[in-house]
Amino acid sequence: MASSKGNFFSNLQIRHKLWAGFGLVLAILVIVGLGVFPSLVNTEQKTGSMVLERQPAAAAAQELAHRLERSLSALGFYLLGKEEKHKQNYLEGLKKLAEELEILKTNQLVTSDPELSELLINIDKDVAAFAAVRDRMITLATTDSQNFPGIAFAGEAINPVNRQIQSLLSEMILSEEGEEVSEERRALLIELGNLRNTWTGVINGVRAYLAFRSKGAIDEATLYLETTGSIAKRLQEECADMLTFEQEDGLAQFIELREQVVASLKQLEKIHGGKRWRTDAYLINTSVNEMLERIDGNVDALVNRLREDNERTGSELLADVEGTKAFLITLLLVGLLLGVLIAFLMARSICRPIQSAVVAMEDIAKGEGDLSSRLQLNIGGELGQLSDAFNLFIEKIHTLTAMDSEAKAVSPR
């Protein structure tokens, strides 16, 4: 029977020892894998957060700022040129702006972070306000009377009075047709013509001021207006006896209407010469620009925060990779050493008993063996069985040899 002496491992069969050795090596590999797995999971989570959430959020925020600039540029071109393509570019820009904002709203990283969420709320509020002026801007671009309050004022306050004055001056001149021709009447007619021409200069100055907002134009209109006052006064004082009924009544109305134009011209200069002379430009320079500045500031803060998070996560990933690499190398070295040790112990536990049996058999085969000696392997398994069988074989040979020797000793020669 196989010897039951020795430790548990030495009593195992060879196939069991091989399985045990492979099992230990496999266990070492599993330990190495389990040691690295948490770090890999952490790296995957950080990489996924950076690639799937932070970078798309930063890209969407930057694209939002870009779309905002393009929308404002298209609006500016539309207000200046009134071209339909610029209007469509403006409306399309607002649509894209809303889409980029929606991407940010659905980003879990942004919505779950209090600071980023607050920035997004402010951006959303200002973008909504920017989009809300769309209809107002389109109306201003297509309606000069609303966009240019000076033109609207001139149309309401000056233009009707001008038509009345032009009609009065024409009637005053036409009333001369029924009068006798004389040097005095001719001089009066010339003076009335000068009054009408001078008044035309007033209106031309007003039109030039409305078109170019030139200080020279309004000064010229004012100068012509003063001249009409002088002419009207001279007609009243020097030609009162020569005036026809139409001329006298028309001149009185002219002086009254002229005073209205004097007051209106001063008001026109305040309106058309002030900051609100063009409504769309005033809105852009005040409320719209304030919105854009807030949006730019909040978008920059959002992008900078996301960039800082990306940089920090990148640094952490590099540190994690370095740590994982060092840990993996350590585990591999330890595993390699343990594997070599296990292989050595397995080879030793298998080869040494076999070598002892080989030496004993060689001694017997060469006739130099001690038949009284036995293999003392003290192990189980196949080698233990081999040891027991070998010892039994030697014992039988020893017995036969002894019997043969005894037989030879008692037999006659």
TrEMBL record:
Transmembrane segments: 21-41, 326-347
GO annotation, cellular component aspect: membrane
Pfam families reported in the protein's UniProt record: 4HB_MCP_1 (PF12729), HAMP (PF00672)
Domain of life according to the entry: Bacteria
Record-given protein name: HAMP domain-containing protein
Keywords linked to the UniProt accession: Membrane, Transmembrane, Transmembrane helix
Domain HAMP: 348-402
InterPro entries named in the record: HAMP_dom (IPR003660), HlyB_4HB_MCP (IPR024478)
Gene Ontology BP, a term: signal transduction
CDD domains assigned: HAMP
